[in-house]
Amino acid sequence: MADPATISPATLLKDELDIVIPTIRNLDFLEMWRPFFQPYHLIIVQDGDPSKAIKVPEGFDYELYNRNDINRILGPKASCISFKDSACRCFGYMVSKKKYIYTIDDDCFVAKDPSGKDINALEQHIKNLLSPSTPFFFNTLYDPYRAGADFVRGYPFSLREGVPTAVSHGLWLNIPDYDAPTQLVKPLERNTRYVDAVMTIPKGTLFPMCGMNLAFDRELIGPAMYFGLMGDGQPIGRYDDMWAGWCTKVICDHLGWGVKTGLPYIWHSKASNPFVNLRKEYKGIYWQEELIPFFQSVTLPKDCTSVQKCYTEIAKQVKAKLGKVDDYFNKLADAMVTWIEAWDELNPSGASKSSDLPNGASK
């Protein structure tokens, strides 16, 4: 594994990473990201009205998919892709043919570090993904592979090689990623605390994954990054990324991969309406008291040796154990299976990196 301190990320992964952006509006925010994103290919998933024209600044290499494209490409299996919810972004993961994915929301801008320098979030994510994780034994100096750090005294030498990093979970300055009740009681709270650290989330520990500043190794964990059934026609929203995070973490723990959280920070520019959020979240606030114990108790058989097998097994357990909480989870379990079937159709095992997939509008 390369020393992350010596990696030149932008040149190394220029042709190996796609940036996935869900949106309902013109992507003017890309102007601020131009120095960092322009070398990369963008996959834009347009939510809402497919007849609305989305403007992308000149000079970016991109594909744009709307709901009509999703229906055309997936046919009946398009039912697994959420509508009128940022969960639609996972369609971009499915149609990408790159090894890595970075996904960002369109209200996220370039943050500055404490010295006032612009943070290249993508570069830090790449460094996280290209260096190993340490999920089986916690290093009190956090990421031991970072320049200026190492394993502390008492850290087992047999574990120092680490394991592949599947997920890099970044954070946010300014508007915190709060649920609606917390937004309502702390409407003016802003995150100004910049913690200069990356850590591996230990094996057996779940976390609330946020999709607004997230990168992952698509070849390792891509089929588990399904953001569920949310938004239009569903009784719940704003749990899409967390659902994917819980499934992903259980699978990473089973297959022996790592999840990192911490750097990089982005600037989250605007808070969503807490009253609207409460309508989307209120069932989830009750259901999560059942969901967390469920994921804490999920066990995967030894013959689950691929992400697809693991994910299909989780879907089976969702139907068996969460279906009695609400019929929604029976629908979600079926959609999880449909997602895997669609993923495998568009990403056949052993297929070449190039694809004859009928793309959306390309630029």
TrEMBL record:
For this protein, what is the EC number? 5.4.99.30
Marked site (Required for activity) residue numbers: R153, R160
So which domain of life are we looking at?
Answer: Eukaryota
Molecular function terms, GO-annotated: UDP-arabinopyranose mutase activity
Its annotated compartments are:
Golgi apparatus
The residues that carry sugar chains are R153
Question: Main subcellular localization, coarse class?
Answer: Golgi
Asked whether the keyword Isomerase is assigned, the reply is yes
Keyword set, alphabetical order: Cell wall biogenesis/degradation, Glycoprotein, Golgi apparatus, Isomerase
Q: What are the GO cellular component annotations?
A: cytosol; Golgi apparatus
The Gene Ontology biological process annotation of the record reads: cell wall organization; plant-type cell wall organization or biogenesis; UDP-L-arabinose metabolic process
Question: InterPro entries recorded for this chain?
Answer: Nucleotide-diphossugar_trans, RGP, RGP_fam
**Which EC main class describes this enzyme?**
isomerase
Query: Is the Isomerase keyword given for this protein?
Result: yes
Per the record, what are the reactions this protein catalyses? UDP-beta-L-arabinofuranose = UDP-beta-L-arabinopyranose
Family that this chain belongs to: Belongs to the RGP family.
Functionally, this protein is described as follows: Probable UDP-L-arabinose mutase involved in the biosynthesis of cell wall non-cellulosic polysaccharides.
Identification of the protein by name: UDP-arabinopyranose mutase
Q: What is the lineage of its organism?
A: Eukaryota, Viridiplantae, Streptophyta, Embryophyta, Tracheophyta
